[in-house]
């Protein structure tokens, strides 16, 4: 095995490298990794009212009505669904009296389904 001869210059170079490493590690200590702050819930999100979700339904309309709905939607830069929804809102608000009458007569819309014995007595004993 051949031994390599180390010169004084090699030793000096290694000592200088070791010294610069020690100086660098002492001069600039690495800060610990930052810990993210806990995120508190914002009161706006907690107090938001629940939005009513849309229901997908199939409806039958005449082809001429559908063409007119698409034209109205195109001119107003809205979807056909939006135009139909707005038309239904107007119709429902115009028929408010009928809806109130229905709610006052309909026994099932009160606080859930009535007791079956009460319903049986009501039907048998008018």
What does the secondary structure layout of this molecule look like, with pairings?
Layout: H1 8-27, H2 43-46, H3 63-76, H4 80-94, H5 96-105, H6 116-124
Helix pairs in contact: 3-4
What oligomeric state do the depicted chains represent? single chain
Instruction: Compute the average pLDDT.
Output: 78
Number of helices: 6
What is the radius of gyration computed over CA atoms, rounded to a whole number of angstroms? 40 Å
β-strand amount: under 5%
The main sheet comes to: none
How helical, in percent, are the residues? 55-70%
Structural class: mainly alpha
| First-residue to last-residue Cα separation | 118 Å
Q: Which characteristics define this entry?
A:
126 residues, mainly alpha, 6 helices, elongated
């Amino acid at each position: 095995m051949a031994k390599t001869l180390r010169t004084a210059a090699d030793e000096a170079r290694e000592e200088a490298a070791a010294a610069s490493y020690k100086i660098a590690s002492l001069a600039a200590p690495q800060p610990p990794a930052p810990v993210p702050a806990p995120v508190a819930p914002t009161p706006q999100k907690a107090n938001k009212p629940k939005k009513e979700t849309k229901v997908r339904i199939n409806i039958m309309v005449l082809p001429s009505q559908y063409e007119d709905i698409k034209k109205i939607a195109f001119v107003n830069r809205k979807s056909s669904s939006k135009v139909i929804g707005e038309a239904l809102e107007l119709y429902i608000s115009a028929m408010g009296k009928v809806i109130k009458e229905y709610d006052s007569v309909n026994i099932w819309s009160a606080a859930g389904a009535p007791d079956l014995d009460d319903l049986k007595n009501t039907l048998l004993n008018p």
